[in-house]
Amino acid sequence: xxxxxxxxxxxxxxxxxxxxxxxxxxxxxxxxxxxxxxxxxxxxxxxxxxxxxxxxxxxxxxxxxxxxxxxxxxxxxxxxxxxxxxxxxxxxxxxxxxxxxxxxxxxxxxxxxxxxxxxxxxxxxxxxxxxxxxxxxxxxxxxxxxxxxxxxxxxxxxxxxxxxxxxxxxxxxxxxxxxxxxxxxxxxxxxxxxxxxxxxxxxxxxxxxxxxxxxxxxxxxxxxxxxxxxxxxxxxxxxxxxxxxxxxxxxxxxxxxxxxxxxxxxxxxxxxxxxxxxxxxxxxxxxxxxxxxxxxxxxxxxxxxxxxxxxxxxxxxxxxxxxxxxxxxxxxxxxxxxxxxxxxxxxxxxxxxxxxxxxxxxxxxxxxxxxxxxxxxxxxxxxxxxxxxxxxxxxxxxxxxxxxxxxxxxxxxxxxxxxxxxxxxxxxxxxxxxxxxxxxxxxxxxxxxxxxxxxxxxxxxxxxxxxxxxxxxxxxxxxxxxxxxxxxxxxxxxxxxxxxxxxxxxxxxxxxxxxxxxxxxxxxxxxxxxx
Length: 531
Fold this sequence. Notes:
The protein has helices at 2-15, 39-58, 66-77, 80-91, 97-116, 119-134, 146-155, 159-170, 173-193, 199-206, 211-224, 226-240, 250-255, 258-262, 270-280, 325-342, 349-353, 357-371, 374-380, 385-418, 424-436, 452-455, 460-481, 489-499, 507-515, 522-529; strands spanning 137-139, 142-144, 290-294, 303-310, 314-320. By secondary structure, the protein is mainly alpha-helical.
C-alpha cells in the first residue's frame, strides 16, 4: 500500500508540476464561485500546501494531511462554473497581453484538472494505478517485481531470458487492455462535454500546441532518424550473425557498457557529484534556497522529485536514489528544475507560481543532457576518457531507440483518442512495425502496460519537446562559447535568457530569444545521427 502512496505522490507532482510560489494558504478558497481575479492566488496557495504536505509525507515529518489538501484541490479544480467563467474571459480578447497570458496559463491548468477529477475518469484511473503499483510478475516460476524483470531485459546475456522478460512485462496488458480502452473513452467523453473533439487534441491545445505542429514534429523525427536506425539494427544483425532481430535484442546492445560506468556512481556520492557539476557552470547550491533531503534508506521505488514551496525563495528536492548514472542524472535534472525556480525574477507572483510544464521539463532536461555528456563524466566522475567515449556512443544509440519507441507510443496515443473503439492492439503493432522496423507480436498488448497513459496522459509530447529544446540550446551554446561544462558563461546565458522570466513569455518565445531561431527538431536529429 505504501508503494501506491508513493506512486500517487509522483502523479500529484506531475499534476501540479511547475510548482508553486506563494504565501501561506488564504482562508478564503471560495472554490464554488464564479471565476474571479482571486483564483490564481487561491490555486497557487493550495498547490503550495500540496507541495509542503507531499514533502512532509516523503520525509516523514509531521502528521499526514496530504489527502485532505488533495481533496480540497480537486474540489476546486472540478468546478465547472469557475472554468466556464474563465473560458468566457478568454473568448473576449483582452488588450492587455499580460492578462491574456495569465488567462491562457490558468485555463490549461483548470482544463486538465477538470478532466482528471471527473468521477468516472478518476475511478478507472486510480484502480489502474493501484493495480500496477501492487502488481507482481511471474518469471520462471517465481513472483518478482517488474523492476527485476526489466533488469533482465536490459542486462541478461541470454537472448531467451530477454525474450521471456519482454513477454512477461508486456503480458501485463492482457488484464488491463479493456480498462485502458475504457479510460480513453471516458476522457474523450469528458473532453467533449467541454466542447473538444477528443482528449488528446484538447491536451495539445492546453499546452499551446496544435495538432499540425505535433504531427509535423513526429513526421520529421521519424524520417530524420530512419537511416541511422536502419544502420543500427543492421549492425546488431551482423554482430549477432542472425537475419532477424527482435525488440528484446535492442536494450541489451546499449546496456552492455553500463555496469562499467555505474561503478563510478555509488549511491552515497550522487549529490556530491551533482553539486560539483553545478559549481562548474556557476551555481553554488549551498548558496541557493534549495533544501535537499536524501531518503534513500527508505524501502520505496527509486525516484527524485522537486517540491517548490515558494519560488524563488524555497525549493525542496527529495530523492530516494540507488547507485548508477541513471539515478544521478535523474537527481541532477530535479535539482536543475529547482535551480531554475530560484532564479525567476518576476514581481508578479503569478509568473513565478504558474509555470508551463514544457518549460519546466526543458530546464530539467538541459541539466540531464549536460550531466550525461562524456565531458562531464571525465571531469567530475573521473571516468577514463576512452570509456566515456564508448558510453557516449551507447548513450546515443539508447536515445535513438528510446526516441523511436516514444514516437510509436505518442502516435498510438493520439490515434487511440481519435477512435478508442478501434482494434487498439492492431493499431499499436501497425505503428510499431512502421517505426521500429521489427517483427510484430499481436499476441501481446504492451500498450496496455504503459503507465504513462494512465498517470500522465498526453504528456509524453511535452517531454519530447523538452528534448528538442535542450538539444537546440546545447548546440547553440557550443557554437558561441565552446564547452558548456566547467564554464560559468552557461549560468549567465541560462539566467539572462531562460530562467529569470518565469512564465511571463511562452516557452516558444524564450527558445527563439535564446537561440536565435524557432524551435526545430533538426538539432536533436543531428545529435542522434552523429551528423
